Amino acid sequence: MSKTGAMDLASGLGGKIEKSDVLSAVDKYEKYHVCHGGEEEDRKSDYSDMVNKYYDLVTSFYEFGWGESFHFAHRWKGESLKESIKRHEHFLALQLGVKPGQKVLDVGCGIGGPLREFARFSSTSVTGLNNNEYQISRGKELNRIAGVDKTCDFVKAEIEIGDGLPDIRLTTKCLEALKQAGFEVVWEKDLAVDSPVPWYLPLDKSHFSLSSFRLTAVGRFMTKNMVKALEFVGLAPKGSQRVQDFLEKAAEGLVEGGKKEIFTPMYFFLARKPE
Ligand SMILES: C[S@@+](CC[C@H](N)C(=O)[O-])C[C@H]1O[C@@H](n2cnc3c(N)ncnc32)[C@H](O)[C@@H]1O
């Protein structure tokens, strides 16, 4: 799916972290979590460090396996993962009813996959906001390659301070919070509910797909061994395998959460400020 290869994965691994510091960054990142002895208070006070370490460590894996857009999507039968992701980005542009030339802000924009597709689909100028420097530099490079660098850009900023990894809220709580903040909610829905293809299917080990081969059990097994070899010969920094391990654990958790219907990455709402 993604055009990035093994060497891109290895060279991007660690993002802005010095290659010699990747192993200690993995250690520190893991220790933020309860299963590694971490405390909620540290996650909150060091929120920015935790998020930045995470995205420095995982971005090249995401790009290698998932592509330039790091989100899930409602998916029809017969649609590839890539098609469903692009359609979701077009859906967002349609819902916002944007007109050519308008300016749009994408908060938490990753490396800008959604932003580029949105801008090309709707002829708008999109600014991506992100607190991770590595993703911004990667996004700028990809904007240049895609030819949208004159109309789209990035700003490095923090949108939330001191609230790292709060408990996952119920969608009803999100709706309440929107209303409390004074928004008028036009419509809202968990788009995962009637998705003909479950959002977590690409990560489900019992599923096989040629078009998203790198996400399948065989693809992940091959990536694991490739990362092991790259780390062994020194082409990937020390600690790379541990990043792959915690991503594997995350993928398993997502699939389980999806199957049990206790987690959704697809809660959509359209809200506006009252006139
Ligand atoms: C799961 S990624 C999604 C990226 C993008 N929306 C996409 O679909 O490709 C979440 C993004 O939010 C950014 N982010 C997380 N916390 C942030 C914060 N407090 N301030 C700004 N950006 C943040 C991360 O750096 C990352 O780029």
Descriptive overview:
The chain is globular, with a radius of gyration of 19 Å. Helix 7 links the parallel strand 2 (125-130) and strand 3. Helix 2 packs across helix 4. It has a domain at 76-165: Vaccinia Virus protein VP39 (Rossmann fold). It has a three-stranded parallel sheet with strand order 1-2-3, covered by helices on one side. Strands 4-5 form a two-stranded antiparallel ribbon. The model has no long low-confidence stretch (mean pLDDT 94). The protein has helices at 6-12, 22-30, 40-45, 47-65, 81-96, 113-122, 133-146, 171-180, 217-232, 240-259; strands spanning 103-107, 125-130, 153-156, 184-190, 267-272. It is mostly helical. S-adenosylmethionine binds next to helix 4, helix 6 and strand 2.
Topology (SSEs and partners):
Elements: H1 6-12, H2 22-30, H3 40-45, H4 47-65, H5 81-96, E1 103-107, H6 113-122, E2 125-130, H7 133-146, E3 153-156, H8 171-180, E4 184-190, H9 217-232, H10 240-259, E5 267-272
Parallel strand pairs: 1-2, 2-3
Antiparallel strand pairs: 4-5
Helix pairs in contact: 1-4, 2-4, 5-6, 9-10
The protein binds S-adenosylmethionine (SAM).
Features:
sterol metabolism; two-stranded antiparallel sheet; 275 residues; mainly alpha; binds S-adenosylmethionine; Rossmann fold; transferase; 46% helix; globular; 3-stranded parallel beta sheet; Erg6_SMT_methyltransf
Main sheet attributes: strand count, strand direction, barrel closure = 3 strands, parallel
* Approximate strand percentage: 5-15%
Q: What is the CATH class designation of the domain at 76-165?
A: Alpha Beta
| Structural class by secondary-structure content | mainly alpha
Q: How are strands sequenced across the largest beta sheet?
A: 1-2-3
Low-confidence segments, given as residue ranges, are none
Can you tell me the overall shape?
A: globular
CATH fold annotation of the domain at 76-165: Rossmann fold
In round numbers, the mean pLDDT is 94
Could you tell me the number of beta strands?
5
Bound molecules: S-adenosylmethionine
Instruction: Supply the CATH superfamily name of the domain at 76-165.
Output: Vaccinia Virus protein VP39
Report how far apart the termini are: 43 Å
List SSEs in N-to-C order.
HHHHHEHEHEHEHHE
What proportion of the residues is helical, as a percent range? Answer: 40-55%
Helix segment tally: 10
C-alpha-based Rg, rounded: 19 Å
Second rung of CATH, namely the architecture of the domain at 76-165: 3-Layer(aba) Sandwich
